[in-house]
Amino acid sequence: MRWSITVITIALALAYAARADHDPDNPDGVAYWISKPACDSSHCEIDMHPGDDLKIEWLNPGKGEIAIYFDPDECQENDEHLHRFTIKDKIDSHHDKHKCNSAGQKGCGSFDWKIPKDFKPGRYSVELVGITDKKMTSYSDLVKILPGKGHKRKHKRVLF
Predict the structure, then answer these.
(1) Is the peptide bond before 116 cis (omega within 30 degrees of 0)?
(2) Which positions carry the signal peptide feature in this UniProt record (predicted)?
(3) Roughly how many angstroms between the first and final C-alpha of the chain, as a whole number?
(4) Single pTM value for the model
(5) How do residues 110-134 score in pLDDT, each as one tens digit?
(6) SS3 category, 57
(7) Domains in the chain, ordered, with CATH?
(8) Which residues contact 70 (CB under 8 A, 6 or more apart)?
(9) Which 3 state secondary structure label does DSSP give 105?
């Protein structure tokens, strides 16, 4: 009986330590941590429209090149009509670093993208994928593309 309590205690301690190391709100040590687009709270999405400008920023870029995608959220209705969209197939991981150092970070990258006017409405995430280091992948908060025109971003809390 004592042995099982000790094993459970150790397992819980390890799980807590692992969770503390992977704080989604702390970019320290996380390669390609996407700082924009991002919400100011967890479980939210950013409302945008076709034709809007989407600023993409990331911290702690690795060496080499990355690809940037707009990936549909798998948990939405009619997602069979939504496909992964290539924003940029090859870009230096430190691209436009002079535009993104507002957080005081030493390493960053940035890319500005205009959402095409005929883009299909749905929920997407920006995905950064390392070309040089294929293990490096990062996702942004959800971006909801609404039908119609508009140029104002709105953050909406989504409860799970």
Answers:
(1) no
(2) 1-20
(3) 38
(4) 0.73
(5) 999 999 999 999 999 999 999 987 7
(6) strand
(7) 30-157 (2.60.40.1930)
(8) 84, 85, 87, 124, 125, 126, 127, 143
(9) coil
